[in-house]
Structure formats: structure tokens, C-alpha cells
Amino acid sequence: MEGGTLSGQINSAKTPEEAKIQMWYVSWSPSSGDADGATRGLFSSEMFPPAGSNTAYYKNANVDKWIAEANKAIDPAKAKTIYADIQKTIWNEAPWAFLGVDQVISGKRSYINGIKVMPDGSITVRDAEVKK
Fold this sequence. Notes:
This protein is mainly alpha-helical.
């Protein structure tokens, strides 16, 4: 199926019963490294299509509550704990069939600092600098 047609059918159904496509293969990773961006759009029940990309129609009251709490958390340690609970719950409930996780291998020269390799393999060089 052509990509635009597939995407339209996946993202236009407002309920699982309306979904014409029940299974497809997709790879996704938040290259921004933003934990909220990696959870809210995909796992919050507020983000069922067409509002977001929760195309598994995953709904868990605790996960919804935790996503909201983590997004408001000022203390990074508290947010990290909440996101760990979110990740563990989603992994255990498996709203998707997790087929694999890429291993991103990277290297750098010892005289370069500030380069970040993101989980999807993209590279951020905004803070890059060459040491002398």
C-alpha cells in the first residue's frame, strides 16, 4: 500500500473498531531525547487518532496520570522515577509487539566534545567543539 494511503487509514480511525489496518511494521524513536515526546503521543489515551499517534488505542489510567505528572515535574530525579514506571508498565502490558531494539554503536575522536548520539542514531552537533 502506498505510504500516504497507509498512514491515512492508520491515523484516521477514531476507535479500534473503525481501524481498517490492524497490524503494520513501524520503527520509531524520539531523536530529540524528550521523554514526554516519547510517551504522550504514543501511549496517552488522549492521543487516540486523529489527535495523536496512539494507534494501539492503549489506555491505562496510571500511565495517563504518570505522563501528566512527569511533564509537570520540576525535579529531574522525580521525573526519571515516573518515566521508569511508565516504561515498565508499557513494556509489561505490551500494547505493541516489540520485535527488536537497535544497537547504535558510535565512536568519536578524543579531541572532540559535545556531540550526542540519539537513540535513533541521529547525531546532534549543536554543542560540538574541537579541543586543542
